Amino acid sequence: MNVAEPGSADVAVLLPGTGSDDTFVRSVFEAPFAAVCVRAVTPAPVPGPLLAEASFAALDEAAERHPVIAGGVSFGAHLAAEWALANPDRCAGLVLALPGWHGDPGDAPGAVSARVSADLVRSRGVEGALAVATDGVPRWLADELTRSWRGHGDGLAGSLSAAADRQAPTLAALSRLDVPTGIATCTDDPVHPTTVAEEWLKALPRATMCTTRLDIVGTDPEALGRAAVLAWLRAGGLT
C-alpha cells in the first residue's frame, strides 16, 4: 500500500465522538500537538444522519495539498481510521483516542449507549434527555453533555444514531494502515473498554498505546491528548 511519508504533515485533523463537539476535542488535543509543533484542526460536527460524511469532507479539504495526521475521540477515531483506509496517500499518521468497537457495533457499550440516548432524545427532547443523562454523573461530564447536546440541537438524535449504527474498521482492515499510530485509552472507562483499544493496537502494524483515566481527564482533558500524542511519537510520528 502506498502511504504518505510518516512525519510529513504538520496539521492534525481531529474529530469529536458521539454527540460531542469540537470544543472538547480542542481541549484534548490542541496543546499536546502544539508542544510538538503540529497545528490541531478541529472541525465542528454537522449534526444529523450525515455526520460521518461531513467529517470525511473536512478531512478531504484539509488534505487537499498535503497529507495530514487524522484522529479523534471515540466515534471520531473510528472515522479517522476509516478515512485513512480510503486515503492512504493523504494520511501521514493516526491519533486515536478511546475506540469503542471494531467491525459491526453490535452490543458494544458505546453503541448501546448511543442508541439509548437517541431514543431518549426522540421521546423527551434534548432538555428532557439531558435531565436523565446528567443525573448522577460527574460534574465535568454533565457540563460537557449539556454544551455539546444543546449544540447538536434538532440533529442530536440523528447524530447519535449515525454513530451507533455505523461499522468501525475491522481488525483485518486496520492491519493495512501502515502509518505511525498513537492510541489512548482510559482504563476506568466502561463505555470505551481498554480491551477494544488493545485489539486495535494488535491489529495496527505501527501503533503504540498509552493510558490514562477518566477521573484525570475530568480535571485535565489534555491528559487524554498527551497520552495519544505520546503514543504517536513513540510509534514514529515526526521521525
TrEMBL record:
It comes from the Bacteria. It holds the Pfam family Hydrolase_4. InterPro entries: AB_hydrolase_fold, Hydrolase_4. GO terms for molecular function: hydrolase activity. Keywords: Hydrolase. Residues 57-207 form the Serine aminopeptidase S33 domain. This is Alpha/beta fold hydrolase. It comes from Actinophytocola glycyrrhizae.
